[in-house]
Amino acid sequence: MNIAKCGGCGVQLNTPAEMTGASRPPCPECGSSSRVFDDTVVETIEMLDSWSMKHRRPGERQGKKKSAIAESFDGWEYNRDENDWVRVSRSVDRLNDWYRETITTRDGRILRDVSEPLSQHRGRGAARRNE
Ligand SMILES: [Zn+2]
Question: What are the CB-based long-range contacts (under 8 Å, 24+) for 31-40?
Fold first, then answer.
């Protein structure tokens, strides 16, 4: 048996070293199958569930290219300042001209909490074009 820590919440777990990936039991505390051995993060990406969506209307165009009327993203992004993964929740609502973004660290600190008209958000580079 190796002493291992959960990669999700850091609780100590007794996990046989040969158990890898999907064969590991999930953490009893947080359900993550990620493990940290010897201070090395193993398979960190496994716990980083993200999703995003775009809402398009057929035929609706803004500018030259078709643009989603609403976009949202909820997931993990690597933050260089924090040297850690942070939770990002971001939504763009072009119909209602609204932009919202929150960035929260794993220990619950709020790095960013923005809610403002999308038209005032331009110029910071986040209203990027994906297509
Ligand atoms: Zn855990």
Answer: 32/6, 32/7, 32/8, 34/6, 34/7, 34/8, 35/4, 35/5, 35/6, 35/7, 36/4, 36/5, 36/6, 36/7, 36/10, 37/2, 37/4
- Cα(103) to ligand 1 centroid in Å equals 21
How many Å lie between the centroid of ligand 1 and the Cα of residue 10?
A: 6
64 Cα: distance to centroid of ligand 1 (angstroms):
47
Q: Is the residue at 130 inside a domain?
A: no
Residue 19 falls within a domain, yes or no?
yes
Q: What residue numbers bound the domain in which 10 lies?
A: 2-47
Quote the Cα angle for 61-92-125, to 5°: 90
Tens-digit pLDDT profile for residues 79-131: 999 998 899 999 999 889 999 999 999 899 999 999 999 888 765 544 444 43
